Amino acid sequence: MRAGTLLLAVVLTVAANSAHGAGLRRIDVPAGIEGGTIQALVWYPCAAPPEQLVLGPFSVSAVPNCPFSVDKLPLVIISHGRAGSFLTHHDTAEALAENGFIVAALNHPGDTAQDLSRTNDLSVWVRRPNDVKRLIDYLTGASAVSANVDKARIGFFGFSRGGYTGLTLIGADADWAVAITFCQQHLLWKLCPQVLKRDFPTAPLAHDSRIKAAVLADPPAPFFSAKSLASINVPVQLWASQYGGDGVAPHDVAAIHEELRTQQDYRIVPNAGHFAFFTPCPPEMSAQAPELCSDAAGFDRSAFHKLFNADVVGFFRTSLGRSTE
Predict the structure, then answer these.
(1) Pairing mode, strands 73-79 and 58-64
(2) Minimal CA–CA distance to 54: which of 283, 278, 275, 276?
(3) Per-residue pLDDT tens for 150-175?
């Protein structure tokens, strides 16, 4: 999922409306022995009215560097799809922040619009869960927002490869050899030469028991079997598009639904393609990236996202519960 180069600089601010908004600030997870610097955006509740900030091709409703409240708030991590960015689900982040959540969306190094160096290598499928684990470590440890996070109420939202990332974090173990059959039928998938040579990663996948609930939208399933998913025991809201796309087939998401043995809220979105879960595109981006922004005739992405975001907020409110402090 390529969204083009996304600049963080704010180039335009217009008049705010009267509603409370979402605060927004940039953080970097410092480089260390586990990897390089990870860039992230953090949204959070803000008492000030929101402004329209233009960040790259997107218009984001938020208040830059709004002061944090003193409350302990639940945290939701957002993981983008292949070659996406920390802005490609900004409307969902805004909705969560406006409803009392701290939200952190990261750029996965090597698999973003700005850095494609690992996007076609199996190594990124190992690194992605570890990226999220490092981000949670930082947000609940050395970061300036640590005191605001309720460490017992952490959730996860992931789209496409971000959905795979979430399944892994909540307990799934990839069965790399399962993908051989997939690749024999999908030879054009850019990872298949590595799979068919059995050049599989040897490093273990990162799990994180701090994540208590997950929303997963159109996750790819080439590396999962029923055994792979058997250890998952947290609530999951699983979304599937009717038509799929970008290597994700509807029957693959249905297979995950059938094989998960945990508490599930399973939704199929009628008349939707894979990128229906991608934030609604502004006109300029629609013209430049129609593969990300075009929908089936009669499908209104903006209207869908209002319902989608409300359901995501409701799921996390229920599954993460009240403060433990």
Answers:
(1) unpaired
(2) 283
(3) 999 999 999 999 999 999 999 999 99
Domain 19-320: CATH architecture, name and number where available: 3-Layer(aba) Sandwich (3.40)
Residue owning tokens 């879960």: 277
CA nearest neighbour of 222 among 172, 270, 264, 265: 172
Which two tokens mark 307?
A: 């319902």
SS3 51: strand
Q: How far apart are CA 132 and CA 153, in angstroms?
A: 16
Instruction: Give, as one character, the DSSP assignment of residue 109.
Output: T
Mean pLDDT of 117-135: 96
Q: Is 110 helix (H, G, I), strand (E, B) or coil?
A: coil
Q: Is the confidence at residue 323, as pLDDT, over 90?
A: no
For 147-213, give the DSSP string: GGEEEEEEEEEEETHHHHHHHHHTT----TTHHHHHHHH-TTSTTHHHHHTT----SPPP--TTEEE
Which residues does 219 contact at the CB level (< 8 Å), separation at least 6?
A: 158, 160, 161, 162, 163, 164, 166, 167, 238, 248, 253, 256
What is the DSSP-derived secondary structure letter of residue 299?
A: -
Helix (H, G, I), strand (E, B) or coil at 257: helix
H helix or E strand, kind and range, residue 253: helix 250-259
Q: In this structure, what token pair is assigned to residue 68?
A: 């944090």
**pLDDT tens string 242-298:** 999 998 999 999 999 999 999 999 999 999 999 999 999 999 899 999 999 999 999
Domains of the chain: which residue ranges? 19-320
Q: Determine the 3-state secondary structure of 90 from DSSP.
A: helix
Rounded Cα distance, 299 and 136, in Å:
36
